[in-house]
Amino acid sequence: MTLPNKPANSSLTTPDEIHPFSNPQTHTEGCNKTLLNEAVKPSSLFSKKGLADRLFAKWFDRLVYPQIWEDPEVDIHALNLKENSRVFTISSGGCNVLNYLTVKPESITVVDLNEHHLALLELKLIASQNLTQSEFFDFFANANLPHNIEMFEKKLTSKLSTKTQQYWNQKTGVLRKKRIELFANNFYHHGLLGKFIGLIHWVSRRLGYDISQIMQAKTLEEQRTQFEQHVAPVFDTKLLRFLSRRTSVLYSLGIPPSQYDEMQVNSEQKGVQMHELLKDRARRLACDFPLEENYFAWQAFARRYDLESQKALPRYLKAENFETIRQESSKVSWHHTSLTQQLQAMPANSLDAYLFLDAQDWMDAEQLNALWSQVTRTATTDARVVFRTAGEISPLEEKLAPNLLEQWQTDADYNAQLTRQDRSAIYGAVFMYQKITGEKPQGLES
Known about the structure:
- This protein is α/β, with parallel strands linked by helices.
- It has helices at about 15-20, 30-40, 50-60, 70-80, 95-100, 115-130, 135-140, 145-155, 160-170, 190-205, 220-235, 240-245, 255-270, 275-285, 295-300, 320-330, 340-345, 365-380, 395-400, 400-405, 410-420; strands at about 85-90, 105-110, 170, 175-180, 330-335, 350-355, 380-390, 410, 430-435.
């Protein structure tokens, strides 16, 4: 179900009508787990890899990303998003979807295997329709205020789909608190990634370091000094060396066994050990961009957003973009299914921009070819696809059938530029592929 016939300023007040999240035909008990198992496509249950794949699928069946960790500025430029763009993307924490709304695209179709992420996306969209800008900021930027719960109860819960109402009101954890109460208790400290970042801070302090000290830096030079004093030594400890060799430790970063294998190959190609590869990516995050503009570094090292100057924020949380998001949010449709399944249901030549995050690292050749058969069918003549990889090699060059690959072009220098400009800095590479039009892809605008 999509929204092409909905007016741009229509309100999201009947969510059960406009998206399939609570539709029993598209969401049933156990569907989340089944989709995840199919995506990971595990080996034999009796093999080491098969057990690891199943463990990851079980571990991933919860809120993983309270915030997405792909830089929307790179995506918006690389995908050449504009007002007539028809976008197809994975949801994750939903930040990317709301960020893309700031360019007023024609439509955004969203999919995710993880229903927890779709519940967060719906909450953000409904909040953009029913809260004031300051209330929205309190809810999703601060995410640590008791009155957020009051706002939810008074202004949001009745506007959510039945399934999503149940999700946020469900009591979980040892203390049996409602999920929505996370927004009065440092929401970004939760989810698998939030807890993992908190664990790294805790372990670092036990080892005698304080990685939050990097936030005291005022210049790039000071950032590099603080990193070498307070962050780099943590990666060189025996404990971090040990943990970085354990596949299951990185599950909380949303890294499945197959993706860990790609990182291992990347470390071997560079002639470094895994802890050194991770340290190098942390160095890029901490040192390559001014802290005043890198909200990824704020979340990693300060564990919050820049609430004072409000400069280091994603687009959707900046005051000047709020009204646009409110007006454009009706253009979003979301679906609890796989990329390939949703594309199969869409018309030919109907999409201009695809954002796959790092999902292709999970896929084998059969899954990848099935996906790109549908991408090629649904793509317009100048469509673009952006994705990230744990390593530095595009999986398409090795796994995609020649008859599909020959219909797409990419540029190594351009991809390297995208990778350098991605402020999250946690991936090995960013790639953009464009449907062949006879023109070489152009670099990022200056």
